[in-house]
Structures are given as structure tokens and as C-alpha cells.
């Protein structure tokens, strides 16, 4: 009987527009893991008119944020079906309450934080973005989104993950510059889907030149 396969449960975090979903899709294509984007799961449940989907749509139709406990129920329901797989969460957790809930229910081995300069994100989004779950539209210059609590800021999440020794931060200005470093790092953690392609590990931080 061969050695037991070591699982890797991971999270990718970053500000809206930092490239989380793009990188998560690349990770899924390259590595043996299941990616669970919270926004996609919510939209899928809404399309199928599930109990959670109907509740989520009600909040969104009234211009309200989907409550943290509803998102937690949805993700945990999905995670129960992939306990023996490598998985990657994208877009969750967003708040400290969600961080604590995830930490209490599942062992997260790795948190990949995308540190992209605010000015770069602002330019990429052309000063306008739509909150993926509530549908609210914000202008980063004149109507920036307000954090519901000081502990909901990314700095609070990162501090908690750093204390646990699972935080890995990638600095760059675009996903194409982050990806080679992230891919090389992950090759030391999880099997490739196509092992013949290998990338050498490079020194952090990533190239910080603008596009």
C-alpha cells in the first residue's frame, strides 16, 4: 500500500480586481484540485432556485449584502462533498467572521494573498466596479466601499493567517507576472495535472514593473 496522499486545502485572497478568479482558473487547469469560487456557487444556486439561492436573491434584489452565515452555509455544504480532494476557495472568506468560521470547521493549509497596488486596480477597473454578490456599484474615487467593521479589512485577515503560518503573499501589478511565481510555489505543494511541464522556483517578490 502506497503512502497516504497529503491534501492541500487553500484559499486565494485579494482585493476586487486583483486577479483572484483568473489565477484560480489557471491553478485549476494546471494542478489537481477543485476550485470553489463563492460568487459562482451563489449564482449557480440562484439559477437552480435552491433554498440558499432564493434567500440570496432576495437580499440582492433589495440591494443588501448577502449575510455571512448564508455564504458560510453554502460553502460548507459544498466542502462536505470534497473532503478527500485538494480544494481552493476563491472569494471566500471576505470577513473576519467568515475567516473564523472556516478556521473552526476546516484545516486550511495555505492562504495565497495577492498584493496588487491600489492604483493598478483602480486603473484596471476604470474607477468603477460592481460588488459580485450584492450587485452594488461603487466608484473607487467618489463612492468607495466601506468595510462593515475594522476587523473585516484585509489587513485583519492577513494578520490572522500570518500568525497561523499559512500566509504566502505575492506582490505584482498583473496576473501574468504573479502566475510564474505562484505556479513554481504550488509545484512544491500539490501534484500537476500534466507533470511534464515544470517551472523553476524564483525569488520573491514578483517583478513589480507596471504593465
TrEMBL record:
Residues in the signal sequence: none
Residues in Adenylate kinase active site lid domain copies: 128-153
Pfam families, sorted: ADK, ADK_lid
Keywords from the UniProt entry: Kinase, Nucleotide-binding, Transferase
GO molecular function, one term: ATP binding
InterPro entries per the UniProt record, alphabetical: Adenylat/UMP-CMP_kin, Adenylate_kinase_lid-dom, ADK_active_lid_dom_sf, P-loop_NTPase
Source taxon at top rank: Eukaryota
Keyword field contains Ribosomal protein: no
Membrane-spanning intervals of the chain: none
Membership in a protein family: Belongs to the adenylate kinase family.
Family matches, as PANTHER family: NUCLEOTIDE KINASE
Protein name: Adenylate kinase active site lid domain-containing protein
Native source species: Muntiacus muntjak (Barking deer)
Amino acid at each position: 500500500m502506497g503512502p497516504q496522499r497529503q491534501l492541500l486545502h487553500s484559499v486565494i485572497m485579494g482585493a476586487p480586481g486583483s486577479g483572484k478568479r483568473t489565477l484560480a482558473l489557471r491553478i485549476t487547469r494546471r494542478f489537481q484540485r477543485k476550485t470553489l469560487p463563492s460568487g459562482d456557487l451563489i449564482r449557480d444556486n440562484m439559477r437552480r432556485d435552491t433554498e440558499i439561492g432564493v434567500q440570496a436573491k432576495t437580499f440582492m434584489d433589495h440591494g443588501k449584502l448577502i449575510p455571512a452565515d448564508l455564504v458560510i452555509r453554502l460553502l460548507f455544504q459544498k466542502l462536505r462533498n470534497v473532503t478527500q480532494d485538494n480544494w481552493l476557495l476563491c472569494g471566500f472568506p471576505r470577513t473576519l467572521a467568515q475567516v473564523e468560521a472556516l478556521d473552526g470547521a476546516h484545516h486550511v493549509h495555505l492562504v495565497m494573498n495577492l498584493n496588487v497596488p491600489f492604483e493598478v486596480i483602480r486603473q484596471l477597473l476604470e474607477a468603477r466596479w460592481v460588488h459580485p454578490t450584492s450587485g452594488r456599484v461603487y466608484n473607487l474615487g467618489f463612492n468607495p466601499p466601506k468595510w462593515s467593521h475594522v476587523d473585516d479589512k484585509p489587513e485583519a485577515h492577513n494578520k490572522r493567517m500570518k500568525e497561523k503560518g499559512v500566509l504566502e503573499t505575492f506582490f505584482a501589478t498583473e496576473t501574468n507576472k504573479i502566475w510564474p511565481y505562484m505556479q513554481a510555489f504550488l509545484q512544491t505543494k500539490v501534484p500537476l495535472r500534466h507533470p511534464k511541464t515544470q517551472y523553476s522556483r524564483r525569488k520573491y517578490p514578483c517583478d513589480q514593473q507596471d504593465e
